[in-house]
Amino acid sequence: MQNLFRPQTVVKYRRPHVNSGALYTCALCDILLESLAHAFRHIRDKRHKKKAKEKLEQVMLIEIRPPGPQQASAVTTALEAEVAQHGLSDEDVELRRCVVAAMQDLLLSVLPEIRLRLYGSSCTKFGFTDSDVNIDIQYPQHMHQPDVLLLVKETLSMCSLFVDVEADFHARVPVVLCKDRNSGLICKVSAGNENAFQTTAYLAALCTAEPLVLPLVLGLRRWARLCTIDRSEEGGLPPYVFALMVIYFLQQRKVSILPTYLKQEIREFSLSRLSDFHLTRVEDGYLHWAYTPSSKESPQESKSPSATGRVSLTLHGSRPPVEVGLLWVEMLRFYSLEFNMAENVICVRTAVVLSREMKDWPKKRIAVEGEEPFAFVV
């Protein structure tokens, strides 16, 4: 009997109010147990042991005291070392710009109306020295994406500056892949990828305006790489999600570091209309939005006219200084104990915690994948 009720099992048994045939119930697994022998078998079950272990870990994490000043400072030093060792320097970014310029000079000979632009971690500095070079092609309306990418693949294949040219036209975002011979960098070339470009502009502007963002994002990406959960092609998380996780934490923190953007102060805004609000661009420290009423609204609601506006990227006014090492520990605690990854969705547009059902996301989709801020750019 002592083994059954010992604290190490992190489980409590009580006589249930329903099912008169059961003598006990496992409060941890929420199942009924018909006899003492059944209860002993249950605590030896692998699934119960797994839940008991997880419960013990949760209790241990809850009881850990916040880091002191010296501990927070040590974590800050470690994060800064990771940024210095693995992050992109100004020279690394300039090298990537040169790769894009060389590719544009080549492609203009066959596609004179296009323009190449760099996006992704090469612009935000959220990547590593060996991260891919993300390139997007802007093309005129009379051209079509498949034709552009096919011609790009053909042209790159005949040039000695780029090797290992191949295409992945079945990906969510079709791309042409190649390697720059001189630098050894892998290039991923897409066409008309406006959402990713606008998201990059938003993240880059935020990183410039709030210096605390960069070490937290790069630290989280480094941790994800060590845990091998950053490979989206293998079912992991895409790189931009780690930036959204940091931003979301800084928004949800008790003393916020960053603001949310769609709020009740906006006259047209309500949670039921969230899908009708779209972030459009970042300009001069402001995030611009547009509201377009959907045809699904009731006649009374649909009378609201379309509207546009802007909100500041960062919070105005001064705030108490905070150690980046302390924020790192708080962020780990937030996602370990406070944020329900199984049910909720990361959304940096609004302060309201969105459930998976509200976003109509399927159960198999990883809720922490996050909502792209410019997924509905207009």
TrEMBL record:
Residues 293-312 are annotated as: Disordered. Residues 26-48 form the C2H2-type domain. Pfam families: PAP_assoc, TUTase. Keywords: Magnesium, Metal-binding, Transferase. The keyword Chaperone does not apply. One of its GO terms (molecular function) is metal ion binding. Its cofactor is Mg(2+); Mn(2+). InterPro entries: NT_sf (IPR043519), PAP_assoc (IPR002058), TUT4/7_NTP_transf (IPR045100), Znf_C2H2_type (IPR013087). It comes from the Eukaryota. This is C2H2-type domain-containing protein. It comes from Takifugu bimaculatus.
